Amino acid sequence: MTTPSTPRLYHTALSPYCRKVRLVLGEKRVEVELVEERWWEPGSEILRRNPAGKIPVLRIDGRLLAESQAICEYLDETIPSPPLMPTTPIERHEVRRLCAWFDDKFNDEVTRPILSERVWKKVMKAGYPDSRLVKSGLRAVKDHIDYLGSLLEQRKWLAGNTLSLADFTAAAHLSCLDYISDVDWDRSSVLREWYATVKSRPAFRSVLADQVSGLAPAPHYAQLDF
Amino acid sequence: MTTPSTPRLYHTALSPYCRKVRLVLGEKRVEVELVEERWWEPGSEILRRNPAGKIPVLRIDGRLLAESQAICEYLDETIPSPPLMPTTPIERHEVRRLCAWFDDKFNDEVTRPILSERVWKKVMKAGYPDSRLVKSGLRAVKDHIDYLGSLLEQRKWLAGNTLSLADFTAAAHLSCLDYISDVDWDRSSVLREWYATVKSRPAFRSVLADQVSGLAPAPHYAQLDF
């Protein structure tokens, strides 16, 4: 049951950027109406909602907000509890550095090559996967797992000793890959433990319930003990 | 003359991300030592400074900071005058949305295709320009100029009525293109006026003095009246 003031998120299920916003809304216990935006289909009105033509778009407080990082910073500033940005500038820099790590570097090297070939070509009926791109993503993910493991050897959470937007940004990307079973959790036990902890938060429930038509999730995807 | 505590920026001249940080440092009147980082050459130590292997990297306050947007937010939080982020969450969202517009969308569609072909292949001795990419960048820039023009018809500065990080992010990208004369300023008189105003700020002086070896700037590049 939603009211006129319930925020509405235009999204698609396996977009890491949409998931990032959903996880932050969930963590802050904001009820949201999810509307699937099939922006690649004729008749999509995405450009009316966001001139950049991208999802997510969040309708909240009477406005349409775009760009996942900008949306999440807005949510953290307007709904302070629980805080997802630490208090000192140097800690905040570290959170933002790691958000950019995932949203730029990890996406370029891993999420996009794998999802575009294994998911989006299927969903958009745009041909067969290019196995070279998938392989390059699967090669690159190893170095990223090692880097994240090295951070988590020294820290409780990715950016420091408190849970932050960096953890949800990382989990948003990794959970998309985990849906199609492309994360080798055996490679790093600290990363597996961290993901199990993040995954068990109530904010994660909606993401774990996602089903993409014609593409069943990996059997362990929604299991908290994987 | 620099002291041990002078911040040091590892950069290259025509990187929009490095320019963005230089412009913010300049606007806040922070003296900085510029060190050219030729990260593509053997022996570069970029990975020791930033595991993402990217510039800019700023050494400041005893730390090495990476990711241009995260660096600029850090600088704005630690050196508040003059402020480059507005005070309300909705205005701050608009600044961050436009920063992402340039650093992601404009870069993907315009800055990278044009600079990679016209500048970086030459500097890195990596072959001849692919004219299809240059043409696609030159086509795309028209829509961006129209969009920026439509914003500036309604606002004094890009994100609203105060100068912000969005203006310097935009100017960082446009100034790299302007160095090789790839901005059609005749297309939008409000955009030209805005750029002339930004370009005349003292923060811009160091950027206008840039010279890339073997690649002279366009004749109007450093002229305040162009």
CATH class assignment of the domain at 89-201 in chain A: Mainly Alpha
pLDDT < 50 runs, ≥5 residues of chain A: none
Structural class of chain A: alpha+beta
> Helical content of chain A, roughly?
40-55%
What would the principal axes of the Cα set say about the shape of chain A? Answer: globular
Distance between the termini of chain A: 33 Å
CATH architecture of the domain at 89-201 in chain A: Up-down Bundle
In CATH terms, what is the fold-level topology of the domain at 89-201 in chain A? Glutathione S-transferase Yfyf (Class Pi), Chain A, domain 2
* Spatial arrangement of strands, main beta sheet of chain A: 2-1-3-4
InterPro entries (chains A, B): Glutathione-S-Trfase_C-like, Glutathione-S-Trfase_C_sf, Glutathione_S-Trfase, Glutathione_S-Trfase_N, GST_Omega/HSP26, Thioredoxin-like_sf
Domain GST N-terminal (chains A, B): 5-83
GO cellular component, one term (chains A, B): cytoplasm
Organism (chains A, B): Paracoccus sanguinis
